[in-house]
Design brief:
The protein contains 2 helices and 3 strands. It is an alpha+beta fold and 55 residues long. A 3-stranded antiparallel β-sheet has the order 1-2-3, with no helix packed on it. The longest helix has 8 residues. It is elongated and about 45 Å long. The relative contact order is 0.21.
């Protein structure tokens, strides 16, 4: 699951569900990755074509 919060991007694995009302959300949030958007860049077409041959 991912959230776009302006410049901040949050990425969590599927196993993290903040809306199930179970457990502690602080404990769940440790499994998530928070990145400033200025450090992200689109994946190039070249990389996508090359990685297709690996599978």
């Amino acid at each position: 699951m991912a959230w776009n919060l302006g410049e901040t991007k949050v990425f969590c694995p599927q196993s993290v569900d903040f809306f199930d009302d179970k457990g502690d959300n602080k404990e769940k949030s440790v499994k998530c990755l928070v990145i400033n958007g200025k450090y992200l860049q689109p994946v190039s077409e070249y990389y996508l074509k090359q990685s297709a041959y690996l599978y």
